[in-house]
Amino acid sequence: VWDVLVDNERWPEWFGSCKAARTTSDPGVGVGATRWAHVDLFKVNERFIVWDEPRQWGFTILDANLPIAETVVELIDLARDGDGTTMTYTFGGALKPWLRPLTPVFRWRFNRLFRSSLAGLQPHLDNIHG
What we know:
The protein is α+β, with helices and mostly antiparallel strands.
């Protein structure tokens, strides 16, 4: 699971709403590494702030084409679960003050986006390990 998550360029193969992604730093791994991603309507530059191979991985958005948030942090926790892996995906952010009344709408939209997009991970892993 870890190897698939950190392979930025291949995210469009399994993360349904990802149109493109690429590493933008050298080195491309570890805390401080950066990437660019086009997810749904958003084009974002991200910096990795957590990199604890193979258990935890997280990043913050540095800037976006649609600047609706003041801050965004995403964190993935992986834990062995018998013969498999359990993944917990946590997304947190603070909307710009003028958008905060719409927080319930954004929460619903992002929950839906991440659930549907992450649903492609298991079939992708099954295909790799066939």
